[in-house]
Amino acid sequence: MKYIVAGHQAVTDAEFAELALGTPVELWLGVEGESEMERAARLDAARDILTDPEYQELPDDLIRLAARVIDDHPDLFNVVPLARPIRGRVARRGVAA
Question: CA–CA separation, 19 vs 7, rounded Å?
Fold first, then answer.
């Protein structure tokens, strides 16, 4: 399946997310082994981006994208459907002590 966002073709899921959001995914998720100083700088940059009027809808876009990924690839999260509880009252007999 080809993903084309704003005229650019995304080859990987990460490229799709970056094109869809307009920012690198690592900015929001971080990278393995980053120092506390790097993490603080990354989060500061993310805060600056969120204050830009162009990105006012970004949190909503992130939630929609996450929901789409979970829906399309539930195996990534090892999600299993849970049995629905049976609704109704259980008759109890006896007297409380």
Answer: 10
